[in-house]
Amino acid sequence: MAKATTTIQQTLTYQPHHGDWLAANQALFNRVASFYFDVIQAHCNVLDHPNKEALTILELLTHTTQRNSNPVMPLSDIAEDIPAYFRRAAIHAALGSAHSFHSHLEKWKQRKEKAIAKGKTFHVRPPVPPRAWNKSVTLYQGMWKDRTDNSIMIKVWTGTCWSWINVRITGRELPLDAELGSPQLIRKGTQWWLHTPVEKQFQNPGKIEKQVTTNLETKICAVDLNISENIAVCTVQTVEGTILATKFIKGGDEISGFRKRQLGRIARNRRKTSIIAKGEQDNIALWKMIRQVDEQCAHRISARIVQFAKQHEASILVFEHLGNLRPAKGMYSRRGNTKRAYWMRGRIFTYAKYKAYNTGIVTSRVSPRNTSRECAYCHNLIARYNAGKPAEGYTPGAPLAACGACGMKGNADRNASLVIGQRLIERYHPKEKPQALRRVSKDTGVIVSQDAKNKKEPSIPSVRHADSNEHGTAQDVVFRMDEHASDIPTQLRLFNE
Ligand SMILES: [Zn+2]
Description:
18 strands; 3 domains; Nucleotidyltransferase, domain 5
């Protein structure tokens, strides 16, 4: 069985002064979390232990008891009478941030070393520990009680003492058959919400490797994400190679146009005020709108991807690894827009992954190398061009693709999507790469053919000699064809030359 977690969000209704208490409660929670972050920084090896042990170590370092009368960094220095479960929730929040910070720092160090080893200068700044703390309070057991469908008692810090308050709950009901996690108090604007993680059990979808190797009918939904009008192009194919369905999810131009207009407005506002106060966010409403639209769009598109996969009974979802941002040149609005479009792609992947998982579909990623340059039918290099132009050359981002080798013509993004799906299949059913496929030089986009490079005879010399030799060799050809059924198109082509 597998588990999936969703969050049930409910609004809270309470007396007006309880709002202040909830705020004081959260402020205290963050003071305690920040304190524990400092304790962890001072005792970094705590992070080498699993969370449960780390918790014990941190309590030993900070919590005064009869047995432990002189802790190294007493928590009582910053606050007295913290309930044990409030403290533990704060410790877990601090551990989460510390793990994240240290893994970022570790990656940064590795990148720096790598750059220095290569003799390059390294300008990327190191990650910094959190400057401000804005964690939501997690209510462990003991901090809440008497939960019904429409009310809950919670224990909060009022600013002067600990007190139980009764708050009303409205909104989505909790599912009956699910396992509840610890609820969280979330502030959205001036309103407080209760978020409850809910765990659902379902039949494990099974490892990708097993699905792909044991059943040729397994359906794979491959997704090509773009920053153009076709935000996502999805195709469903079976492991054996039958293409079953295609879907274009459009709307990229609209979202990008909207975003660009807002960024333009921000740029103009900034020009007017000319100085932006340090540490102060400008154009708050505009930024908020951009964020919300991006977020909503990522949710909508990921939901449509998963819906399409489900509709065609795909059990695997595959994306390509998203490459690094290629910074755009030009105006602020253009640069900012491309950057956000890239972020949104990442978010679509993340959301699709968990949405898929919740419906029993597993997600994988494949190498993005040349996915848009390779023909989905014969794996030769394709031409990519704009409508009305000759089908030759490679214009990045152009909508049409044509393959000189097998005559395939069609949409370039759909072709890329098919290639992405095949990459996953090939991971478990490896086939020989046709000789014609080779490296594309990064800087020039010029194809570096290995044939041209080493001037060796290309593949399968026996086929070439079939004319001059006797039928012994011809039989050999037939035998070889049976053996590598997947290579037939390549061989036939050579045979006709
Ligand atoms: Zn082709």
